[in-house]
Specification:
It is globular and about 45 Å long. Helix 2 runs parallel beside helix 4. With 138 residues, the chain is mainly alpha-helical.
Length: 138
């Protein structure tokens, strides 16, 4: 039997590590060539900081960091997904929809991106788009 600490920050760190691992894998899948080292480091730092601020409920700081990451790699599904989450937290639902769509277009088989888009559309009281979007992206 495995006993895990009940500390919520422990779980958040695991989620962050999985997001970062997924981001690194998706970068290679999208480009087929890695970023130059300095750009990769800058992207990773901004992406990690954005997730940190998102978890700490500091959306303004998270927004600045994810915008820096997207300026380096605008086609990143993971960065667009996080931008959608941050925009949703800030109440910027049109931006949340736009970024969530970009994430889903970058990685159409990622169910988390599809769920995020559906949540945003539901929050906008638009119940037709999620079904249409999910059905066409699978």
């Amino acid at each position: 039997m495995i006993i895990l600490p009940s500390n919520k920050y422990y779980l958040q760190n695991i989620v962050l590590a999985l997001l970062l691992f997924g981001t690194t894998l998706s970068l290679f899948a999208q480009n087929n060539k890695p970023l130059p080292e300095a750009q990769q480091i800058a992207f990773d730092q901004s992406f990690i900081n954005a997730n940190k601020y998102l978890m700490l409920k500091m959306p303004d700081e998270a927004w600045g960091e994810i915008q820096r990451a997207l300026s380096i790699l605008p086609e990143s599904g993971a960065a667009n997904y996080v931008a959608g989450k941050i925009a949703q937290q800030k109440g910027m639902l049109a931006d949340a929809e736009r970024y969530s769509k970009k994430a889903t277009q970058a990685e159409p088989n990622n169910i988390w991106y599809q769920v995020q888009l559906a949540e945003v559309l539901k929050q906008q009281k638009n119940t037709v788009k999620p079904l249409w979007w999910v059905n066409t992206s699978i």
